[in-house]
């Protein structure tokens, strides 16, 4: 599944690692305009899979709306006894999570293979 929304500001890709594991790759800008698209995708993936890894390495801008979507997805994963992993190595994502005081709410991995290896 690939989606460019709008005018290539956000690209979302989903890869099925196995029947119970999905990797969602996010590239571009997560703001008030694009975050709902990611929110809908994460909700669908958390409904279908036990483990969802969100690769945020390609995120160039992360606004509060994007943080809220990630937090909502994490809460859904917790309620439904699913695992949600965030992967990022960008200053953009790190600064946004630090500034909002949200790092402690998420499970992180250094890269997608590490998240997949450590998933239940």
Features:
6 strands; 120 residues; globular; alpha/beta; Transcription Regulator spoIIAA; 4 helices; 6-stranded mixed β-sheet
Q: How would you characterize the overall build of this protein?
A:
This protein is an alpha/beta fold. A six-stranded mixed sheet has the order 1-2-3-4-5-6. The protein has four helices and six strands; from the N terminus they run E-E-E-H-E-H-E-H-E-H. It is globular. The chain has a single domain, classed as STAS domain (Transcription Regulator spoIIAA, 2-Layer Sandwich).
Task: Report the radius of gyration as a whole number of Å.
Answer: 13 Å
Number of helices: 4
Q: How would a textbook summarize the main sheet?
A: 6 strands, mixed
What is the overall pLDDT average? 93
| Number of beta-strand segments | 6
Task: Indicate the proportion of strand residues.
Answer: 35-45%
CATH C-level name:
Alpha Beta
Alpha-beta classification: alpha/beta
Shape category? globular
The total number of structural domains is 1
